[in-house]
Amino acid sequence: MKLTSKSVYGVRALINLAVMYGRKRAIPISLISREEGISSLYLEQIFNKLKNYDIIKSVRGPKGGYAFAKDPEKVSVYEVIAILEDNIFPGKCVRGKGNLRTCRKTQSCVSKEVWQELAVKIEETLKGFTFKDLAKRAVNIDPKEKCGEES
């Protein structure tokens, strides 16, 4: 399974928002873009999709920006990645948007059991991380050690 930059950047940006949650102000996209090293145009596309699913909300005006629409404790990494990716599972035969079955051998495929078990583990793991949890971890790391692009 390989996630697209939408998910990687979306999760990083939401951690940034989660750190600021509770300060009763929206965060400008330009600030998140600068801190995370993500194009503000690309981040806007990601945020628009998350806004459609009520994960975040936008605030207009001079103190405008983005904020969580609900408590980050109630938003899992799984939920966000499932919104941003077409299929996060290790095979189209296992699960996808609309539960598509694209393989001719889906009824007789023994290896499907492996992919199903892996899909369950991926989902369990991603559901185990909330943005509140990740925000707590983020405030305890050295800013020089923040994750960025891989070399």
N-to-C series of helices and strands: HHHEEHHH
CATH topology term:
Arc Repressor Mutant, subunit A
State the major sheet: 2 strands, antiparallel
How many helical elements?
A: 6
Indicate the CATH class. Answer: Mainly Alpha
Average residue pLDDT = 84
Instruction: Identify the strand order in the major beta sheet.
Output: 1-2
Number of strand segments = 2
Number of domains: 1
How far is it from the N-terminal to the C-terminal residue, by CA?
A: 19 Å
Share of helix, binned = 40-55%
Query: In one word, what is the shape?
Result: elongated
Structural class: mainly alpha
- The radius of gyration is 17 Å
Question: How does CATH name the architecture?
Answer: Orthogonal Bundle
Question: Can you give keywords for this protein?
Answer:
151 residues, Arc Repressor Mutant, subunit A, elongated
Polypeptide structure, described:
This protein is mainly alpha-helical and 151 residues long. It has helices at 5-20, 29-36, 40-52, 77-84, 112-127, 131-139, and strands at 56-59, 65-68. The chain has one domain: Arc Repressor Mutant, subunit A (Orthogonal Bundle). The chain is built from six helices and two strands; from the N terminus they run αααββααα. The chain has a two-stranded antiparallel ribbon. Helix 1 packs across helix 3, helix 1 (5-20) packs across helix 4 (77-84) and helix 1 (5-20) packs across helix 6 (131-139). The chain is elongated and about 60 Å long. The model has no long low-confidence stretch (mean pLDDT 84).
